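Practice problem: predict the structure.
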Amino acid sequence: MPSLLFCGPKLAACGIVLSVWGVIMLAMLGIFFCSKSAVLIEDVPFTEEDIRNDPPQNVYALYNQVGINCFIAAAIYVGVGAVSLCQVRLNKRQEYMVT
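Answer:
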């Protein structure tokens, strides 16, 4: 029977740690972007045209879009963490198997 195990225990543990860190960081960034934090204005991809046409609404829409992108990236990190957790469990189960 083919095994779904494709990484070792240390790499799986590292994946869990990085996933937890990524989810926390990106979720917080998403919250701050959606609340339109002025500190993050440098990270919003607006042009001069956005400022000339309807300054607050266009920039606020871009803030929301960047916030949504952060939440999507956090969800991807949750998926990576789930795969890493499965790898840790498969590695632990393989330790107890007799071959």
